[in-house]
Amino acid sequence: MSNFLGDVYEPVRASALLSGGEIMEREGMELGRSMVFRDLEDRISVFLVLPREGVFSDSWDERHHAYVFRGHDSVTVESGREKDQLAMYESGRLSENGKFYKAAIAHREGSRKDPLQVQIYEKVASGVWYDKGIFNLVDAVQESEAGRRIFSFTLSPANLSRITDDAHHAERMLSATEKAAIWEQCRGRCVRCGAQEGLRFIPGTHTLECAVCRGEHIGLLG
Predict the structure, then answer these.
(1) Architecture field, domain 17-168
(2) What are the tens digits of pLDDT across the range 60-88?
(3) Which residues 6+ apart lie within 8 Å of 138 measured at CB?
């Protein structure tokens, strides 16, 4: 379960940071690409926000509560890495971009009642990931960027109806770029005591603090 959708049986953890191994165990598979389409009751889809030439491919619009994720680059047997992000391969098989795009358009046009749910993880450092939470895929477009065609997916937080109760909303919606910069600056340690467990990103000061220094250590998991 996402760190941001805790309940009485699995409370929100003291930290949203995970290792690659924890993600594999949670998702039941090794995630070898940045987009994994799963339209199943017990397994939702996954986006991995990965560095692309030093830039992370996500953004958050606080005013409209909209999260935008750029699609992944396409690789074919015939040509290797393609200039454009493809919706379909030459064989007629949909790419991951195409599967998500199809689901988003179906929801936008009303033929799909419930939006596809997507779990998002952001890469913070080597072997360190951040659980951004579960989002609803509400729209998608194809657009031009630097002379090539790409996909842009729009999502909204699954807990949008109770977002005001999300004490860690500001941390959660920091971009992956900001999280990576804070992690590097603090060297993966609490800025106050040097601890490496129970860490959270503190938006106001752009630092890391552990659960103990935040006063949240009693009864919480790391």
Answers:
(1) Roll (2.30)
(2) 999 999 999 988 887 654 555 668 888 99
(3) 104, 107, 108, 115, 154, 155, 156
